[in-house]
Amino acid sequence: MTSATPAKLIAYFGGTFDPIHYGHLRPVTALADEIGVTRITLMPNNVPPHREQPEATAQQRKRMVELAIAEAPLFSVDDRELQRVTPSYTIDTLETLRGEMGDDQPLAFIIGQDSLLTLHTWHRGRDLLNVCHLLVCARPGYRTTLDTPEQQAWLEAHSAEHAAALHAQPHGLIYLAHTPLVTISATDIRQRRQKGEPCDDLVPPAVLHFMDAHDLYR
């Protein structure tokens, strides 16, 4: 009798994506190569509780994500958070996903180093490790250590040095990835659009065409 094939690690990447850009796509693609993930699901959120509300509508942001990943088989999109009219708390979504996948499926949520530094302010932020791993992409200009000795000790207690550990258990680890530092932000793109400056090098061509067609961020 042979044992069942272990489930492959599945990763989710949430964000406002207002708009989606290469600063989202390139580091996450590198992350997938680094840790051996073959599926990453992008999850646009509707009402982010920790930041200003999006300028583009939910459906416009979803469409831009779809256009950005149309020729990238690594990615898919999950619009469940766009169905909400209440704030999108990450823990609620990840607990729902865990319930759908069962207890044994390795599951991860991708964040940036900036989000790791503020995770203690998130609604039940630390509870995320009860349902998933955290994959942390490097971000330019942000510290690699947490604010307090207690927070740093928590990080070190859960850190995974090798990516293989992420595939071997369903949740509970934090992996600090060696992803490229990409200095692109949605704020910069919106500002450049308002000034009439080009954004060809910041977003995929199909996304730029969509923004032009719908006169977004002007």
TrEMBL record:
<dbReference type="InterPro" id="IPR004821">
    <property type="entry name" value="Cyt_trans-like"/>
</dbReference>
<keyword id="KW-0547">Nucleotide-binding</keyword>
<dbReference type="InterPro" id="IPR014729">
    <property type="entry name" value="Rossmann-like_a/b/a_fold"/>
</dbReference>
<feature type="domain" description="Cytidyltransferase-like">
    <location>
        <begin position="12"/>
        <end position="192"/>
    </location>
</feature>
<protein>
    <recommendedName>
        <fullName>Probable nicotinate-nucleotide adenylyltransferase</fullName>
        <ecNumber>2.7.7.18</ecNumber>
    </recommendedName>
</protein>
<keyword id="KW-0808">Transferase</keyword>
<comment type="pathway">
    <text>Cofactor biosynthesis; NAD(+) biosynthesis; deamido-NAD(+) from nicotinate D-ribonucleotide: step 1/1.</text>
</comment>
<dbReference type="Pfam" id="PF01467">
    <property type="entry name" value="CTP_transf_like"/>
</dbReference>
<keyword id="KW-0520">NAD</keyword>
<dbReference type="InterPro" id="IPR005248">
    <property type="entry name" value="NadD/NMNAT"/>
</dbReference>
<comment type="function">
    <text>Catalyzes the reversible adenylation of nicotinate mononucleotide (NaMN) to nicotinic acid adenine dinucleotide (NaAD).</text>
</comment>
<comment type="similarity">
    <text>Belongs to the NadD family.</text>
</comment>
<keyword id="KW-0067">ATP-binding</keyword>
<dbReference type="GO" id="GO:0004515">
    <property type="term" value="F:nicotinate-nucleotide adenylyltransferase activity"/>
</dbReference>
<keyword id="KW-0662">Pyridine nucleotide biosynthesis</keyword>
<keyword id="KW-0548">Nucleotidyltransferase</keyword>
